[in-house]
Description:
37% of the residues lie in helices and 12% in strands. By secondary structure, the chain is α/β, with parallel strands linked by helices.
Amino acid sequence: xxxxxxxxxxxxxxxxxxxxxxxxxxxxxxxxxxxxxxxxxxxxxxxxxxxxxxxxxxxxxxxxxxxxxxxxxxxxxxxxxxxxxxxxxxxxxxxxxxxxxxxxxxxxxxxxxxxxxxxxxxxxxxxxxxxxxxxxxxxxxxxxxxxxxxxxxxxxxxxxxxxxxxxxxxxxxxxxxxxxxxxxxxxxxxxxxxxxxxxxxxxxxxxxxxxxxxxxxxxxxxxxxxxxxxxxxxxxxxxxxxxxxxxxxxxxxxxxxxxxxxxxxxxxxxxxxxxxxxxxxxxxxxxxxxxxxxxxxxxxxxxxxxxxxxxxxxxxxxxxxxxxxxxxxxxxxxxxxxxxxxxxxxxxxxxxxxxxxxxxxxxxxxxxxxxxxxx
Length: 375
């Protein structure tokens, strides 16, 4: 693939550029006490909460998260990433790229090259002599490919819940974000391949590796599974034992503003600004937004890997998630099971504890464990 320079392929919104970025930020800070007071008072009556079964805390927390994501997406907020272990010490590792032959086809890009990337172990560093019989989950975090991370304060609590449910370990790669230079596709997919190879190099058999991802991380997990199947080089890259998808983002070609018009817009915190920001820098100029590696929806594929998929009927992405599940199920050789949860917003795997949906997140993790045990 020929990409001759490092220019950006789309213009940033004016509020993401100085000095307007600073002006907008100062304005929001100055008006924050008034807006917060309004939110705290607004949801006291049960009959005007986003969902009649939501608690006061759930209603307020969902609204606050929606406001934060709208602000962060408008100014295109970027957090700094580091390959230094920091306070995580030995649990944070740095992975170097694998052999060049591993990165071929759609991930072979003249400008975007495989690079060293970090990763975080949960609940502790993998030890081959102690954990040799445990399953290892390779989990990709959500964040629309532009925000999020793998450190304890960045990626939510789902990783710990999942590790506990399966009595195993979770490894989370710090894949390159498209909000950074040279972070567009296929950077994240290259990093996912590097991470998978890292686990195999530790001596972990593919029969004990489970690929997982929430939201955009689910999109990335599907891209990795598609890549492994299409390469058909199972001596170097054998297929994992299973896949877990948590509220996956499946259609980067969709109109971001459609979420504002969706019937579930009141019960979800996702905003058009986040989806628009996420899809714009991630897609390379030589691929259409509906390309199979960008948008799994309407691009189902056959796989021997069992797939578990959790999503909610209250999500703004519900329709595309249900449609994709049905598309995958229509392929005779596929083994896919879904957990369709009511009355919860997008990606409780990531923000269930933050929004007050702890029980539902634990139930989802236990359902995933039952699915894995049945395979």
